[in-house]
Structure formats: structure tokens, C-alpha cells
Design goal:
Blueprint lengths: L3 H25 L6 H9 L9 H38 L1
Helix pairs in contact: 1-3
Length: 91
């Protein structure tokens, strides 16, 4: 990971995408529709090739996992760089 800031930003953007999708589901579920109608309405916001609830769930789980990996790696890399700088300045 050459640029931890870039990976951190990408991880945060992926997390925001998943959170926005989750908020959309919660918002649509407040309309007191049946589950099937709410699900159909929710899926209508997705492109036609993503209109499968199981596929979307898997996709968003994968995106969250990738976001956690990227942000964790970026934070770890940044911490190592910081520690090296601190230790080298004391020498």
C-alpha cells in the first residue's frame, strides 16, 4: 500500500455507499407497506442487473468487508510510518 490516504478514502466511500443504501431501506419501510411492496420499491432504485435482494445483500457484505480491510490497512500503514518517523527523529 503505497498511498494509505487513498485507500482510507476509498474505504470510507464504500462504507458511505452501504450506509446510504441501508438508510434508503429504512426510509422506504416507514411507509407502512407490506414487506413485498417495500422490497419491490427498494429494488426499483437499483439498476436492472442488481434487482435481486440476495445479490444486493452479498454485494454490500463484500463492499463492507473490502471497506474494513482497506481502512484497517491504511490506518496500520499510517501508524507504522508515524512510529518510524518518531523513532528516527529521536535517534
Amino acid at each position: 500500500m503505497k498511498n494509505p490516504k487513498l485507500w482510507f478514502v476509498i474505504g470510507i466511500l464504500l462504507t458511505i455507499l452501504v450506509v446510504v443504501d441501508f438508510v434508503l431501506w429504512w426510509y422506504l419501510s416507514t411507509f407502512s407497506l407490506s414487506f413485498e411492496k417495500t422490497k419491490t420499491l427498494y429494488l426499483s432504485f437499483s439498476p436492472p442487473f442488481f434487482r435481486n435482494s440476495r445479490y444486493l445483500t452479498g454485494l454490500f457484505l463484500a463492499l463492507n468487508t473490502l471497506a474494513l480491510y482497506l481502512t484497517g490497512k491504511a490506518i496500520t500503514t499510517s501508524a507504522r510510518i508515524f512510529i518510524r518517523q518518531v523513532l528516527s527523529s529521536r535517534s
